[in-house]
Design a protein that fits this description.
This protein is of the alpha+beta class and about 260 residues long. The chain has two domains: about 1-105, Alpha-Beta Plaits (2-Layer Sandwich), CATH 3.30.70; about 105-240, Pseudouridine synthase I, catalytic domain, C-terminal subdomain (Alpha-Beta Plaits, 2-Layer Sandwich), CATH 3.30.70.660. It is built from five helices and ten strands. Strands 1, 2, 3, 4, 5, 6, 7, 8, 9 and 10 form a ten-stranded mixed sheet that branches. A hairpin with a 2-residue loop joins strand 8 and strand 9 (about 180-185).
Length: about 260
Amino acid sequence: MRIAIALEYDGRGFCGWQSQPNGCGIQDAIEAAVAAIAGSRVAVVAAGRTDTGVHAGLQVAHFDAPRARPLTAWVRGVNSHLPPGVSVFWAKEMDGGFHARFSVAERGYRYVLFNHPVRPGLLSGRVGWHHRPLDVDRMRAAAGWLLGRNDFSAFRAAECQARSPIRELRRADVQRCGDYLMFDFHADGFLHHMVRNLVGCLVQVGAGTATPEWLGQVLAARDRTLAAPTFMADGLYLSHIVYPPEFGVPSTGRLGWGFTRA
């Protein structure tokens, strides 16, 4: 029986999604909790492998359950074995043709940036921070240069293992909500550190140290050394996962301060 689950998590205290020998991955915690309900170890596959310190407002995963359990067991039962900061909020029985990673039609990330002279306290580690005023209109103009199917080599990490740097960026938007800026990116896929590198460049444009057109030049040059440094992971959320409609998978997570509605 293939089961799909939706998760939200605070990425602090974990070394990213992927399982590690020392058990520090979110995948390690999920697999242990699922095993406690299933009665045996099962592999859990996620839609996106988030990095260290990156959060999820919506992460979808699947596993093949060795025996039948009520769907509530895969939610409340699994949650009773998970550490604080990780929660399953729905479970759904799926056809065997569903795959949490390979069936995805579109992924999306939201970066939440606190734009204020004084650093955050209560939300430290859950939002990024920039102390100087940022011009949203300039950042929106710059983001327009990124849309479409492009070579994003200038925005990929050196250790990125993707076979191709070509991605189709379908949405790149910036909105201000008081002292917070919301950066939303939707694409057919993302490269390692791609969103954090894009945010770093957009912040430079918003601060007035680069022009909107500069971002288009960086994209065209395909040279990582020309782009801004990788921005902090704190404010990055996996927030949007879309599957073909025949699977019947919801494409949004639960609202958390409005951060996950992307």
